[in-house]
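Appendix B.2, paired examples.
Example (i):
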Amino acid sequence: MSNLQSELAQMSLAGAIAISAFGIISSDISSVSAQTIPSTSQLSAQSLPPSQDVIGKTVVVENVTAVSQLSDVRPTDWAFTALQSLVERYGCIAGYPDLSFRGKQATSRYEFAAGLNACLDKINDIIASGLADKVSKTDLATLQKLQEEFASELSTLRGRVDALDAKTAKIEAQQFSTTTKLVGQAIVAVSASGSGTDNLLSATGSPTRLSGKANATVISRVRLNFNTTFKGDDLLVTRLEVGNNGSNVLNNLDSANGTFLGYTGFANSSQFDYSQVANTARLGILRYDFTVGRDVRVSVGPVISLNDGLDQNGFANDESSDFSAHLFNNNPLTMPINGPGAGAVVAWNFGGSAFTLRAGYVAANANSPTPTAPAVAPNGIINQGLFGDSYQGTFELAFSPTNSEGDNPFTVRLQYTSAAVNNLNYSTVGLNLEWALTDTIAVFGRYGFGSINNPIDTIAAALPSYTNSTNSSINPQTWSAGVSFPDLFKEGALAGIAIGQPLIESNVGNATQTNVELFYKFPISDRISITPDLQFIFNPNNNSNNSTITVGTLRTVFSF
């Protein structure tokens, strides 16, 4: 025990103040809880919010009324008597949320001043209550000496609290809601594409209205997210979105001529995930996220997207930040319903381990009970409703171990999907992998296989222009893989290149379409980024007679 510790132990009040500072502040961060510092309005320490940030980071503390409540303080400790005196006589001591005291940690003068300030406030309260006789003259003399010694630190702390009070008052006056935060994003992209073929052919060789040449276009999408919390650990997400209905070359394919609508990764594998948003505002997301117990997280709502909770990938999953093409953002076989619908996602982490099991269900037409008969399914009808076609149910098991630094550089996800989309039944399996090899390079990929069948007729009946099969089912595969370069040339930048094949199936076409995309996101500021993007599409529509399509895009993203 040092001489300073010995001296403080003999001065019950000063020693207890020093020990209190130990218990209030962690030694590895220069912050204190506002619960121990008075505001300019001279509120008592106990009346301030326990998690208010004062100097840097938040430390939540708990007041104690008896020294026995501190789990790591023993009667044999050298400072036990001083702590007991502080608790019983002045009640200005705090511990950590787990009621530990951690008295062996080092402290700074600022931290000591914080403990002193808490006791000064408590003694002021005692005197103001007409109980001055409860405070000994010795303690008052000690306090006076300590105030003189720590006058500079006390003044600095009060100044910081005053500034914090002013800042808090300004935020409260200007915010539109005490429970809701507005997060916005606007995407503006200029895109041009071309091919050596004036009219592209379908997989069977018949001409379609998909032009091989297209004029330059401007595509835009704006999203406003209203994120609301009622308890702190829950979240109500309300999203409004609007666009200019812009599209790129492959979006022009006439759906009545046989687009594989039940498989978004085939004919529309190069579709931008931010394109074709209507120019009238719509409700894009409405879901409520909450926890059940300690390990289960639930998301449920009338308008959700399964890809917000399933088939995630840290390097290929965000059309506003990385790849534009749908193929590289989600597995088209295990995620056949790309649009929002009614449903839920449940995530269960196994006791804080590396394993997480997720299950999701979505019905694309849950708001419409009336069956319809679209041209793509001439021999049958789409059931609709919450449990009718179109729907998708997916299970996903993720393994994401934590390294010694607390990060998760490696994640692998195994998936199974059962779905019904436009009278086509899906039973598919998928694999999703991401691996950050270093801080500046990562690899990623997806793979899927399974069966798609038409329970009413042949596959050709549902896809008249895209398959020459007389069978009632096909067994397609899909894959994509790439490399990502975070912080390339500048912090916050991101570069990536990926290659993939949306539909590998011998009964569809005479070749296999192959997509390549590369991009470089350059941050202009924390709120603005510009991304040049280049795509190459070989054997479009699984037809070797089609020339390669080249798509160039300049994407600008504004975040607010």
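Example (ii):
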Amino acid sequence: MIAEAGSFALILALALSMAQVGLSAVARWRKSAVLAGAGEGAALAAFLAVAVAFAALMHAFVTSDFSVANVAANSHSEKPLLYRVAGTWGSHEGSMLLWCLALTGFGAAAAGLGRGLPQGLRAVTVATQGLLGVVFLAYTVFASNPLMRLAEVPVEGRSLNPLLQDPALAVHPPFLYAGYVGMSVVFSFAVAALVEGRVDAAWARWVRPWTLAAWSFLTVGIMLGSFWAYYELGWGGWWFWDPVENASFMPWLIAAALLHSAVVTEKRGALPGWTVFLALAGFTFSMLGAFLVRSGVLTSVHAFAVDPTRGVLLLMILGLTAGLGFALFAWRAPSLPQGGVFAPVSRESALVLNNILLTAATATVLLGTLFPLIREAATGEAISVGPPYFNLTFTPLMTALLILLPVGPLLAWKRGDARAGTRRLWWAFAVAVAIGWVVFAAVAPRKGLGAAGVAMGAWLIAGALAEIFERVRLFRAPVGESWRRLWGLPRGAWGMTLAHMGLGVFVLGAVFETAWKIEAAETLPIGGAVNVGAYHVSLDAIRAVEGPNYEAERAAITVTRDGELVCRAAPERRLYPAGGQTTSEVGLCYRGMSHIYVVLGERREGAAQPVWLVRAYWNPWATLIFVGPAIMALGGLVSLSDRRLRLGVAQKTDGKRREAKA
């Protein structure tokens, strides 16, 4: 009965979303506060109904109710509780229900936190969000119902993909979906602004916190997915330009561009059309990601399903929603205000260049992701686009962006002074060059590009600090005044500094791990060893172990340096009998911020005794790769706590726009 109650709640949510659309649309037409309140109530009720359906599906997984088709296909009674819970969103159907939960949740939040918005804008936003809910709930109810019963109940389920049975993957989808679907509110705000003809500084201020929240969730979700790929897949890397990795990265890039563009619109009233365009594009790329992951048009360990029929439906949803949004933009764009005028050297110009580089980088990722699909559809020839393409196209664009990033905040609005901005950054530039030179001269082997990358990371960190020092007038004002200014800085400023510093930390980790990584692979008998850099990795023993739902060979690995014990690792090669799948569990040794990474491969019969393929990596400063995005997400949360950026806070603006001080 619980599954049936969940199915009913899902259908009820669809009906409530329809009511949300109708009531909010009529409220805008008749300017009725009562009907607007009813539409907002329907938004909250739709979210509660989807939450009931989600709870029913989770109950089915936790109790191993194999009469539910989704549970039978993706769970097993011997699976640990954490992975039975994670199985709720570990399939195509379950993930779409999670998508609907996030979508209606953000709709309810937009309705509840938008009390300070103009009535017409709020009503159209709630109606648009409800329309998105109708589309995706209808898809879930009629094409991907996760609570369908089986006529013949199996004794045991087929289990979840072993690669997904991991703590990072248990929490990765909720964060990622919160980011994906968080952009839906921004999309709805853009549609409402176009309908109302109101794209101004106040609108940009209302959009920014929603974008910031979605961007922060996406940052955490991508970081968790990258960390999972790093230690679960066993290939020694953290990013492979996999199409599904790209599917989450593209909306992140667009959201980053939107954050910077919205600042220009808010502070100077400039770029209104471009900001609306990015707001529409952000959720469009999120829907594109949903299509790529679930349509079967690509092969990836991240993909949820290989189902062309449902893929066509998702493509139709993408075409319908994005098409209507951009058609409205094309119709209304000529009537949008032109915005403020600014000089070529100004903070506005720096942010415009920032946007050009981010959107160009997004375009290169989009081309590299879709070109193999287009080529195969047109010619029947299967090709792949891998890291060489992205290194040649994406890296130069991002390098230019990273050079520019610390400069923009130190330029004045409207008309800046390039020479004064350069003077404020001279010490940051000196620190970056000095660190790069030390790395080039001291770290063997010498690598010019690696040293330049380290200098780039140091430039971002020092540049972010320089912006804070300039705000508090450090060394140019009495200590007491600087201290007072420091404590009086708005949280939004601290959030921006943390985000830029986190990016610098990530760049340092990525450069060190890429440029100075060392790899070794040998087939070893018991007692054999392989050297990786300055470390001696020996295979001491192999023993069979029984897990809760798997069988494994576990290696006892000893890592030494100059005869002294560094650490012990226990990589495994697991077999999951329920699905007949084999996976590798990595052994990680932490040496400060660096890792010794060991993978146990297949057993082979040697001439005298069995041998195992052992791969070992020395990954210097790899921890920074994951710490950096965490700092960036923290910066987003700190900015969200700023009263000026709090969700739902609507500030009145003067008739004359006040120019923000640098």
